[in-house]
C-alpha cells in the first residue's frame, strides 16, 4: 500500500486530464505525477531513503502537492510544517522528527535556513526560487536533471506516511504519526461522506500543512466524475475567493468558520455571481449556528459541519448532504468508523448523556512520535480519547458541548496557551499569566491573557501588549491583557480557566473590569 497510488489509480481511470488550477494556470493529472516522480528521484539522488522524513513548508501551491506525492512515492515520510511558524518553532519540529531534508520556497528560505542551523540531521534545504545557493538547492534545477519515471514503492499499510504536529494545552507540539492505511481509509471516508453525484469544482484554500487540507486533497483523487477540478489558492483572500467562484463555477467549498464569517460580512459579495456555490463544509472549529443559517440564506447554498482530529486523520463525524438540517450537530460517524461517548471510567454512556468523545477505526493514528506514555493514554483500550466533550442523540447525531482541553482555536488553527503564557510571563512586571480563548466573530476565538503583577512593580495592559508584539507573531498576539489581583485556582494550584472565561464574559456584559 502507498497513498501515492491514489493518484495512479485516478490516471488509470481517466487518463491525462486537467485536474488542478492555480493562479489561472491549468495542470493535468499526468503532468502532476511526472513532477512528483522527478521530485522523488531528485530526493533519492540526494540520498533520501525509505522511512526518512522530508519536511515541506510553504504556502499552498502545485509544488506542495507534487512534493507530498514525490516523497510518498519513494517511501519516505512527509512532514508538513505551517509556513506561519517562527524559526524556533520550526526548529523544534524538524529536530523532534529528525527530518533529513526540507522543501520550501524563497519567501521562507531565510527562516528555514535559520531553523536548520545546528541541526545535524537536516542534510538538504531545497527551495522553489532559491536565493541563497550557497546553503540551499534550487528546486527547479534539481527537477531538470531528474527522471520523470518512478514507480511508487510498496509500503506496509502500517508504515508511516506523514507526521503532523498538533498543539496541546501545555508543552511542545506533538507529532501525530499517520500511516498509509490511515490516509487511504481517511480519503475513502471523506469522499463517501460528500455523496458526490456529479463533477465537482472544489476550492482549496485550506492550508495543505493541516490535516483538513491533506484529507481534502487525498479525497480528490477518488473523484469518479471526469471534469472535476481542484482550484488551489495560495492563501485565503475573500475577494479572490469570490472571483474564483464566479470564474470556475465552484460548487464545493471546504473551509473553517473564520473564512465563512469573512465572506458573509464582506460588503461587496453581491457584486459577484456566486450562484454555482452549492455545498460548503465547515471544520476545524465550532461553527456558530447563527453564522451557518445566515450564510446559507445570503448565498443560497447548503452549509454542513464536520468534526475531526489530526489523530484520526481528520475523520470523526460529518453532516452528509442527505442528512436533515439539525442546528448545532456535527453529524454522524464516517464510514468504517465508530464514535461513542464515555464517562470518566471509560464506560459507554447512553444517548443524551454528556461525556468524552472516543473514536475507533482504521483512520486513527499509530501514536505520538517519541511519546509512548501519551500514546498509551490517548489510545487506551483500543479507542482514541479525544479530550472533547459531547453527546449523541437518539438518531446517532453528535453534538460537541465543550473541550476538556483548554486549547485555543483561532481561525481553525491550534494555539497552545502555554506558549503565550510563557512569553507574557517574561515581562519583568508580570507574576503569573493565564491565556484563554475568547469569542471572536471572525476567527471563532481570539486570545485574552489574565495576569497578576509582581508586588512593588507596575505595568499597563498596553505595555504588556507592546512587549508581546516583539515576541510573538501577529497571529498569536493576545487581543487583550486583563490585570487581576489573583488567578482562580484549585487546591493543588491549577488555574481554573473556565472561571476566567466566565469572568471575561461577565466583564464584557457590564463593560467593566473583572471583580
Can you put this structure into words, describing what you see?
The protein is an alpha/beta fold and 515 residues long. It has three domains: 5-155, Rossmann fold, CATH 3.40.50.980; 232-403, Rossmann fold (3-Layer(aba) Sandwich), CATH 3.40.50; 416-510, ANL, C-terminal domain (GMP Synthetase, Chain A, domain 3, 2-Layer Sandwich). Helices cover 30% and strands 26% of the residues. It has 15 helices and 26 strands. The strands form six sheets. A nine-stranded mixed beta sheet has the order 12-13-14-15-16-21-20-18-17. Helix 2 crosses helix 6 (139-145), helix 4 crosses helix 5 and helix 10 crosses helix 11 (289-299).
Please state roughly what percent of the residues sit in beta strands, choosing from under 5%, 5-15%, 15-25%, 25-35%, 35-45% or over 45%.
25-35%
Radius of gyration: 23 Å
Q: Please, what is the average pLDDT?
A: 94
Please report the number of helical segments.
Answer: 15
- Number of structurally distinct domains: 3
CATH class of the largest domain: Alpha Beta
- The CATH superfamily of the largest domain is ANL, N-terminal domain
- Poorly predicted segments: none
Helix content: 25-40%
**Distance N to C terminus:** 59 Å
What is the fold-level CATH name, i.e. the topology of the largest domain?
A: Rossmann fold
Main sheet overview: 9 strands, mixed
E-strand count: 26
Strand order of the largest sheet: 12-13-14-15-16-21-20-18-17
- Structural class call reads alpha/beta
